[in-house]
Amino acid sequence: MPTTIHDKFASILAEIERTGSANTQRLTVLKTWFEPGDRLRAFACWMIERIVAEQQAASSEAEALITEAGTALHATDSTGTPHWVGMQRLLRRLQAFHSEYRRVKSYQVRIIHDRSVLLLEEAFRIILRQADQPADGYRLAADDCEHDDGRYGTTLNGPAKARVQAIADFVAEQEAREAKAQGPYVSLGV
Asked: Is 0.85 topped by the overall pTM?
């Protein structure tokens, strides 16, 4: 019997419980899961809603951007179409928030002032199809679960366990929505 994504998430969570950490690359299971339908954009929308609900900003400017992200995600025009121009403007502002670069050895390194704003930028790039590959969704999930806190490193450990569980719950909920939208299975007797 093939292993499902739910089995793989259960394995990741069990490994974190058993050993205290798991490699972030274990989340690559999401790349295949994101391929069908509009799952990637649904994940990006879910991430934005979660970030807005958590409202953990490092500055008042970041807090304003997070609040605006929630508004932009649900803004529509008179026909009910999402307000794409407003989202594009917000994306430019999110990118500008982290427009500072420093030279480290021979590399240019982007300075990140607020992790939540960075995650919003990645999510809006997906929604606006500037980044619409399954790998972009994996990167968003990995960035969400990794830590910039030296006590935890960049593996799936510590507080990352709750984030991995939240993503696993989203996957299950999205699959349930898709199954409900397809309706009951009817055999054609062929």
From this structure: yes
